[in-house]
Amino acid sequence: MSSLGAAPARAEGKTPLTFRDHTFRIVQFNDTQDDERIDRRTIELMEKVLDSEQPDLVVLNGDNITGGCEDERAMRQAMNNVVVPMEERGIPWVLTYGNHDEDSTPQGGLDEEEMLDIYRSYPHNYNEPSPEGVTGSGNMALTIRATDRRQGAAFALFLLDSGRYAPAQVAGQDFSGYPTWDWVRMNQVEWYCQTSRALEKRWRKKVPALMFIHIPLWEYRFMWFGGVDERNGGNHEAAVVRHQITGERNEDECPGPVNSGLFSAILDRGDVKGVFCGHDHVNTYCGNYYGVLLGYAGNTGFGTYGLSGAERNRLRGARVFDLDDRTDDVLVETRMVFAADYGIDLTADDQPIEPLPLPGER
């Protein structure tokens, strides 16, 4: 079998993820995005969400660190800061990459593949290397077993690397006037389809799933306005009813210049119940776009841009997913939780701290 059609990755030496009494909870943190001197409130928010929600799995969905790290040690410290909350609590976690994860690479030297090796060295990380021939780092499928082991996989997660920035040119033409973010490549779409089919063949059923990517799809914007050409309040009001949209949109979506066809593939396969991203920090909305949830997780990191003025930190938060393997779709609910829910200081300033101790230094 080709690498594109390989079986879903299994975290070596790790206890298989399993529903407990038919339930499973996932927390998504997005854009923690800081250097080694992280804002203390980012850690506080992560810790309070973990202690309150008691998730079975955490997804760090890209832009986990950013620029400003002057050497490799600083990069390792920045990475370590955002995984310590899960490691201290023994909570399994996985990550994807965003457009900022390699911002410190010119100074610190670590690229995404090398960072992935470091992340995978932590006891509670469930990442695996990307399949050979698939663009990006950390593309993987992770399955969650049903409470009744005889039923096999009850749910799956697809993690895709949505890249960083568009190439300077394609076919001799630049992208002036177009969005210059990256996009999911066709070989990644093919990998998803083949892996989805492999899961269906193995378990003799389509396995419901969630997909996590950092950069949103064009379909997010289409859903918000209920169309392509007309973008105004009236169109959005109609879209809210049609697509059951909740949450806020405070900035334009920032997809890449190319529509990857990923959403069409998802419709064709019929297993992915929702696609969730980050990237646009002050968007928190979620809607049902022709049977597939499209949603944001807001922004967890207090060191990044937020809303303007005194409201800068109002939307710092995380997204929670509740699963139940006794239901057809398994995904029962998704909701946002915010720093304000936990009484965290929302002052519009920066509150950096010294790096948390690296493994072996504690």
TrEMBL record:
<dbReference type="Pfam" id="PF00149">
    <property type="entry name" value="Metallophos"/>
</dbReference>
<dbReference type="InterPro" id="IPR004843">
    <property type="entry name" value="Calcineurin-like_PHP"/>
</dbReference>
<protein>
    <submittedName>
        <fullName>Phosphoesterase</fullName>
    </submittedName>
</protein>
<dbReference type="GO" id="GO:0016788">
    <property type="term" value="F:hydrolase activity, acting on ester bonds"/>
</dbReference>
<dbReference type="InterPro" id="IPR029052">
    <property type="entry name" value="Metallo-depent_PP-like"/>
</dbReference>
<feature type="domain" description="Calcineurin-like phosphoesterase">
    <location>
        <begin position="24"/>
        <end position="282"/>
    </location>
</feature>
<dbReference type="GO" id="GO:0005737">
    <property type="term" value="C:cytoplasm"/>
</dbReference>
